[in-house]
Design brief:
globular
Length: about 180
Amino acid sequence: MFAEFAESERIRRYWSAAHDYVRPGPAHLVMYLTGRFSIVRKIAVAILRRRSRPTTDTPEEPSLLETVDVDEAVARLERDGISGGLCLRQETLQELKSFCDTAPCFGNGLRSQPFLIANKQAAEKEYGETFIAGRYLDCWKTSATIRKLLDDPTPRCIARGYLGAEPVRITARMWWSFSTDTN
């Protein structure tokens, strides 16, 4: 019975995530599923750049990230497929840490297994399961800091420069990954 509930919860979660990617258009779902392959990313970027090349000007609004050279970040994405060097401001990091300390996360992403991060071991005993992840489901709905990050001008400028189009926000995810005993 519990296994059936866990499976139905997993299916519901996947369907919900798929819906988030289809709602803006089917192309978003296709990129979600295939965008990890560099050839797919290169083709998508080439198609988008034919339409128009928006500016990557340095954002005028204050950012929750440390100062970043947007053009350099875009160049690294184009060259390497990844761009490090994005660092949250210390106060932003503290706000996120405070959120994580007080908001429930969910063992292995299951809504039926909420716990506070400080009580992880007790929750694992209570639910009779070892958690490999603790997910903050719908965190953008409950954290003002995450909502600000979603609208932060710096990552939007980087995404706009890399994609060659205005980026579309779909969702936000935040989680803990836990080490486990492999025996």
